[in-house]
Every structure is written in structure tokens, then in C-alpha cells.
Automatic annotation (TrEMBL), chains A, B:
tRNA-binding as UniProt keyword: no
CDD domains: HTH_ARSR
One term of GO molecular function: DNA-binding transcription factor activity
Pfam families: HTH_5 (PF01022)
Residue ranges occupied by any HTH arsR-type domain in the UniProt entry: 27-124
Transmembrane domains' residue ranges: none
NCBIfam families assigned: HTH_metalloreg
Keywords carried by this UniProt record: DNA-binding, Transcription, Transcription regulation
Official protein name in the record: Transcriptional regulator
């Protein structure tokens, strides 16, 4: 517990690149603004499906021409959703001839997984104390 | 790779409760709608800060009276954000006398961390093949 109390509010330059620590210390405003953009990009069913289609593709990348048929949406709408995922740093793309190819940027999903992972499980101090006392 | 291709699109009843697998198989529409609600709740800087304040509290719960002063927002606005986090299954609360106390529901953040975690690292098959061939 004392370690937790030693965590300084605000930026932690050593770990900032990887994980501001959503569950271990209060986020500062800048961190929250930055992180909220990524979660907002994930906060839409079409974008989640697009991301899962891209991320789970065995070859590692997907032609936009293979994504569009899965949705009852226009190509420009799909492209708009893909743009938001790209702006959030979740995917990247490259145009080759007629088509654009998309792939996952796993650093971002790794980062999100990391900040959502609890530190090593701690027993609840109060209950542990009660259990010992009884 | 063959294992990946065997993954059936749509619901996987065995793992559905825990992790629809954002990165391992395309989400079906229902899973995406459900999951998008949670990410949408996280897609706001004030809610992220509230969640991190609640999750990182050593005692495990926080009085709303300790949350409000950190923000330049009215009590009803803070309560609205807390309600959205609660509806997303990220926190729960209890009224005791004048104040409402909030705590993290770690099952949901665990679930998000799990679906954002890549399966055991696989070398990129094409590059590995190239490296072996050269």
C-alpha cells in the first residue's frame, strides 16, 4: 500500500511511452485526453469489427476490398471508420495500385492491454486482516 | 496458422463470457455492439480520470465527495459520467447516508485486457520463411 501512495500523480516519464497506468494511479489530464481518443475509436461496433477483421487476418494485412463486403455500408463510410482507427494509431495502411491494404499496429493494442491489466493480484487488505484475526 | 483458420466466425460459447477475442477472430455483430458500449464509456477524458481515481484508490472505494473536487465540473455532470461507467459494467456503487461510494469492477477491465492481448507471440510466417531461406 505504501508503494501505491508513493506513485506521483501526473506524468511518469519512464513508463509514459508504454502505460500511464489506468488502474494504478490517477491519470493526469493530458494522458486522459490522449487515451480517450483511442478508446473513442474503439467505441463503435463497425470499427471494432473492422479492427478484429484486420487483426485476425493470418497473412497480417487485409485489402479494403475484402473488408467492405462484410458490411451493409458504403465504401466511403468504411474508409471513414478505417481513417479513425488509423488516426488512433491502431492500424496503418498502404495503397498498392487500386486498393489500400491495412494492418494492425500491435504496439497500441499491447499498450491498452497493459494499462488495463491490474498489478500483481493483491489480497484486499481489510479482509485479509479480518481473516487472520478470526 | 491452420489453427487460426479453424476459428469459427461468430460466437464461441466456451470463451464468450470472458473474451470474444478482438485480435484472434472477427467479432460478430452482437459482440461488437456489446463491446463498443464499454469502449465508448472509456472514450472520454473525464470518465477515464474518474475510473483511474476509483481503480487506484488503496482502500478499494471512493466517496463521490472525493472525486468531484478534482474536476472543474458540477456534481450532476460528474454523477452522469459515473453513471455511464456503471452502465458499462466498469464500476459499481452504494449509497451510505449522504454520499455515494464507488469501486472498480475488475472483471470488466480484466476482460478488456484479455481481449486486447495478442495470443502467444507468433513470428511473421513470411519473414521467418525468408530468413530461413537466405
Amino acid at each position: 500500500m505504501s508503494n501505491q501512495e508513493l506513485v506521483v500523480l501526473g506524468r511518469n516519464d519512464e513508463t509514459d511511452a508504454c502505460c500511464p497506468g489506468l488502474l494504478t494511479a490517477p491519470l493526469d489530464e493530458d494522458q486522459a485526453v490522449e487515451l480517450a481518443k483511442v478508446f473513442k475509436a474503439l467505441g463503435d461496433p463497425v470499427r471494432l469489427r473492422l479492427l478484429s477483421m484486420i487483426a485476425s487476418r493470418a497473412g497480417g494485412e487485409v485489402c479494403v476490398c475484402d473488408l467492405t463486403p462484410a458490411f451493409d455500408l458504403s465504401q466511403p463510410t468504411i474508409s471513414h471508420h478505417l481513417k479513425l482507427l488509423r488516426q488512433a494509431g491502431l492500424i496503418d495502411c498502404e495503397r498498392r495500385g487500386t486498393w489500400v491494404y491495412y494492418w494492425l499496429l500491435p504496439e497500441m493494442t499491447d499498450r491498452l492491454a497493459s494499462i488495463l491489466t491490474r498489478p500483481a493480484a493483491e489480497p484486499l487488505p481489510d479482509r485479509a486482516a479480518t481473516a487472520t484475526a478470526s
